[in-house]
Amino acid sequence: MSVFSEVVKRAREGRSVKVPDLAEASGFSRNALYQAIKREEVGSIRLGRATVVPAHEALRLLGLKPESIAA
User: Fold this and answer.
1) CA dihedral 49, 33, 45, 21 (to 10 degrees)
2) Which residues contact 38 (CB under 8 A, 6 or more apart)?
3) Which domain of life is it from (predicted)?
4) DSSP assignment of 11-36, as one string?
5) Domains of the chain by range and CATH?
6) Over the Cα atoms of the chain, what is R_g?
7) Could you give the CA distance from residue 63 to residue 17 in angstroms, rounded to a whole number?
8) Region 24-31 average pLDDT
């Protein structure tokens, strides 16, 4: 399964996505995504040393509707 498919599946399940995985799936560089997070253009959560993007934000960046998250 491709990284894109894995990220979409994870986000649709309502689970947060790691920045490197989202960057690869979206076509952004990791640095560009981290900079967007720093500028608060993309929502994120810090879990220890890791930064993750909530499911609704990941879907938005991938051009998918947040309403498609499974309940």
Assistant:
1) -70
2) none
3) Bacteria
4) HHTT--EEHHHHHHHHT--HHHHHHH
5) 3-64 (1.10.10)
6) 11
7) 15
8) 95
What is the rounded distance in angstroms from the CA atom of residue 11 to the CA atom of residue 17?
7
Q: Which of 43, 60, 65, 61 is nearest to 52 (CA)?
A: 43
The closest of 53, 56, 45 to 24, measured between CA atoms, is 53
Determine whether 34 is exposed, middle or buried from the number of CB atoms within 10 Å of its CB (0-12, 13-18, 19+): middle
What local confidence, expressed as pLDDT, does residue 1 receive?
Answer: 78
pLDDT in tens, 51-67: 999 999 999 999 998 66
